[in-house]
């Protein structure tokens, strides 16, 4: 029988006298180190209860707290806005209780991960370690189109009241098509103050800087275990956060005490051995709680266990070979950046074209490929319109029948090829519009013809010079752009093909560019864009893939 003591709805005062509600799980023996989890999703779920009991049974005081304005907590919910200061006050309150020994860690996923970084920026003296899971990076890294993904509107609806709202009562396929996009909330039948605010800030300004931390990691110096999955829709955040905090050569005390764990998982990590079209085998599931416990035991209890003793701080799952590998750093120091150039003779429109992908620039047939992008008929993105998981290991071969999708493939591979690391594309492009998008997707083409998505990324042309300002195009002018295609860890097996798609939409993962150059929030006018990608002698477009030696 568990000897954990649970106290519900403990009122925790913040510095402005607003009281937040917490459930406290106490171990048999106290005082003990504390673990703080702050959530907008309700602290009474079965999964959170089981998590609290597990860590309390292993000698920790666990505090699950409803963030300000959610659940049983007082105040007004404003996503991320108060979480840094509230997190500081919550940690120091717990540290001061007689059942806590003054040493506190934080953990949690998604929103619960983001708020850990916002809290750590304020440097609470009792905070000694953190476990951010599937944590976003800065909002404008997540939303390269300059406005939140339409899925974000679904999230805001879900957390729009004090308790979780039922998203199934809304026809999201229709809501996502709303123009102007600033009225998307009204199409749900529920006004969202936060959506309206975000629509007024389409560049990286003080509004976003308040909840950003990518350029502020110099303020954070504590051990951290960063956890995510290759198919997490927030995937770009976790490797980026790790690389900003882990530096073996820095003077920071705990820079070497940062760890990265990446599995073959979606946003709901470590739950299944398969995803979409792919099966990863039984080793893809791990004892995640045990992994986290060992980390906290080392850094909160000072237990001399073997966590991190091999000096390999990166644990990643290699899809395709379906095995775990340990590395010293991320990106992998021994992965060789290799350029795969695009070209075609007759045209790469659809998978029935002759687009090819080659590492030999002398094999490029100089020219260009063009297509029309119609915002009223965007390239669909395979997704559950109400899921927190925006994309998975899905087959895009049917979508590749469209003429507005350029398809470039290698020949069948003669040996297994491991692509492990950040993915970047450089394109030379032009359009007859003042603004448009360019989307790049990496796929693994199986012998049966299925084209399985690995990862993708997008550049909105008005933000090609950065998110701080909008710079429209001159129609007809050629631009050199980079597209961040995020990260992957996949072995493309012999007999498979490496493929990329280039298009101008991925709806509803990204909002549609209407191609007019007008306000992203308020515009309703639509223009069909005629877009071109070049592969000329001095304008070779390519994707750069980090190739890991498997021998």
Outline the structure in words.
By secondary structure, the protein is α+β, with helices and mostly antiparallel strands. Helices cover 16% and strands 30% of the residues. It has helices at 46-57, 83-95, 111-120, 139-142, 150-158, 172-175, 184-187, 193-199, 206-209, 237-245, 288-300; strands at 5-13, 19-26, 32-39, 61-66, 100-109, 127-133, 224-229, 258-263, 274-275, 278-279, 314-318, 323-327, 336-343, 356-358, 367-373, 406-409, 417-431, 437-445, 451-460, 479-492, 497-503, 529-535, 542-548. The N and C termini lie far apart (51 Å).
Short description:
The protein has 551 residues and is of the alpha+beta class.
* Count of DSSP strands: 23
Ends distance: 51 Å
Number of separate structural domains: 3
CATH class of the largest domain: Alpha Beta
Domain Xaa-Pro dipeptidyl-peptidase C-terminal: 293-544
Protein name: CocE/NonD family hydrolase
Organism: Aliicoccus persicus
Keywords: Hydrolase
